[in-house]
Q: What sequence folds into this?
């Protein structure tokens, strides 16, 4: 029973030459695979190196572009034509004008207040002067009246 199962195999590989040729074919296919794998590894290494070179080149180009942009902005800033600078200067100028306007309004308000206080104090001084003058006149007149009355009584 075991011999009948093995017999077809034996018949298939009945020739040693044929077995050797099968082994040779397998060796060649393995060697072919090895060389294909080596080629693939080499091409992957080349691709990785090429990708790395591209990356470095792109990074360098980005650096140079950014540097050129910053130099252009610096030149514009020094010339006063940089848009961001102009916006900030315009805002700063508006704030300055607003502060000057507020200071002028405050000065005007303070000046009006001082003038009102001056007029009020002047009126108070004039009134006090007039009151004192009336008081002195009354006092003087009272003394004169008393002096007259005394002089009449003594006579």
A:
């Amino acid at each position: 029973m075991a011999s009948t199962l093995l017999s077809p195999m034996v018949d298939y590989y009945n020739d040693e030459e044929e077995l050797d040729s099968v082994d040779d074919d397998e060796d060649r296919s393995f060697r072919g695979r090895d060389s294909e794998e080596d080629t693939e590894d080499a091409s992957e290494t080349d691709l990785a190196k090429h990708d790395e070179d591209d990356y470095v080149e792109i990074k360098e180009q980005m650096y140079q572009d950014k540097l050129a942009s910053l130099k252009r902005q610096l030149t514009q800033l020094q010339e006063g034509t940089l848009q961001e600078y102009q916006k900030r200067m315009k805002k700063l100028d508006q704030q300055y004008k607003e502060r000057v306007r507020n200071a002028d309004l405050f000065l005007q308000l303070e000046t009006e207040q001082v003038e009102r206080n001056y007029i009020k104090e002047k009126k108070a001084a004039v009134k006090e002067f007039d009151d004192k003058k009336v008081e002195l006149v009354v006092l003087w007149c009272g003394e004169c009246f008393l002096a007259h009355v005394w002089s009449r009584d003594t006579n």
About this structure: Residues 1-14 have pLDDT under 50 and may be disordered. The helical segments are 2-12, 16-79, 83-154.
